Amino acid sequence: MRVRIDELKSDFATIKGLEFSVGRVIEEEWEEPIGPTPFPSITDLREWDLKLLKRYKPFYMPFCDVCCLCTFGKCDLTGDKRGACGLNMPAQQSRIVLLACCIGAATHIGHARHLVDYLIEKFGRRTPINVGGTNVEVEAPVTRLVCGIRPRTLGDLEDVLDYLEEQLTHLLSATHTGQEGSNIDFESKVFHAGMIDQVGMEIADIAQISAYGFPRADPEAPLVELGFGVVD
Questions:
Q1: Which of 73, 131, 220, 224 has the most Cβ atoms closer than 10 angstroms to its Cβ?
Q2: What's the CA angle centered on 135, arms 133 and 138, to 5 degrees?
Q3: How far apart are CA 224 and CA 182, in angstroms?
Q4: How far apart are CA 203 and CA 142, in angstroms?
């Protein structure tokens, strides 16, 4: 929102050419307060991740003995050997897992972005979110939990997608040569990738259900027939 005042006179002062803008106003009507980490960064939940990883330690079964991800390689990581960047086998395996999770998250978030952008162009940013009306008490449970906001229109989903894309970029940057050396820190980022992936999938579902009129909170929704029989 942008406001411009060309001239304002009062008993105390005369103001000319005043202009100010507000990027986003968050006003929620929840009975419970927003948690301590809305739109969490990679490090915001790291302490909790480390507690989980200390209790449930990762177990690695290497499917490859070398690293070929940069021009310093190929690097032999068998035994206690390290690559040119200092990476050992556990860190390399967890890095591969993070890369795989980022690929999956990028697929879902990219689909959600394309869908939301198209639906906003077609129906407008003020198109209301409706996934079941009064039959659904929490319309976006994952988005609410992670981001701390209640999306009401298609335009609100853009802010969430901006956050997801930013986090995905940070996660991918951590897989670059020499950026991270601890397998546990890689695993913490894997948790983060899985979290934003879930949000991205929910955003896509909310958008298409709301704009295209897909079945809303209908336990008896008809199934779409598939197979050769539908050709005829």
A1: 131
A2: 80
A3: 46
A4: 9
Q: Where exactly are the structural domains of the chain?
A: 46-216
Per DSSP bridges, beta strands 14-21 and 66-67 are unpaired
Rg (alpha carbons) of the chain, rounded to whole number: 24
Instruction: Name the CATH topology of 46-216.
Output: Helicase, Ruva Protein; domain 3 (1.10.8)
- Per-residue pLDDT tens for 127-165? 999 888 777 788 899 999 999 999 999 999 999 999 999
User: Which amino acid, one-letter code, is at 218?
Assistant: D
How far separated are the first and last CA of the chain, in Å rounded? 53
pLDDT at 28 over 80: no
